[in-house]
Amino acid sequence: VQLLESGGGLVQPGGSLRLSCRVSGFTFSSADMMWSRQAPGKERELVADITNTGSSTNYADSVRGRFTISRDNNKNTLYLQMNSLKPEDTARYYCNSDWTISVDIWGQGTQVTVSS
What would the DSSP string read from start to end of 74-95? Predict the structure, then answer.
């Protein structure tokens, strides 16, 4: 099982980034998926989740209206479009399913830094 996050970087406040998570080793199209983030010294925060078909999404209040979660089941890839980024969005971002969390499988994450 592999979760390969990418797309992070350094961006100015108000900027945009698109994160990707390439998944292998389990049936991606059957799994509800999520993005979470963790900043130094803070607890992990669930950012957004999406059902296996993409028909339903949920967002944390802190990102609703700015972030969009999506997926391409043909490419086994999860996305997070992040717009109007704020310094408080600075964190390492991870993708997971409930199952990968339950068996403690994590990717390396991708670092997002929002700073002028």
Answer: TTTEEEEEE-S--GGG-EEEEE
> Could you count the other beta carbons within 10 Å of the beta carbon of residue 83?
14
Question: Regarding predicted confidence, which is higher, 18 or 101?
Answer: 18
pLDDT tens figures, 60-75 = 999 999 999 999 999 9
Q: Is the dihedral of CA 88, 92, 98, 102 positive or negative?
A: negative
CA distances from 2 to 5, 23, 32, 51, 88 (A): 10, 6, 16, 19, 28
For residue 39, what is the DSSP state?
-
Instruction: Locate all alpha helices (DSSP H) within the chain, ordered by sequence.
Output: 98-102
Q: Give the number of other Cβ atoms within 10 Å of residue 104's Cβ.
A: 6
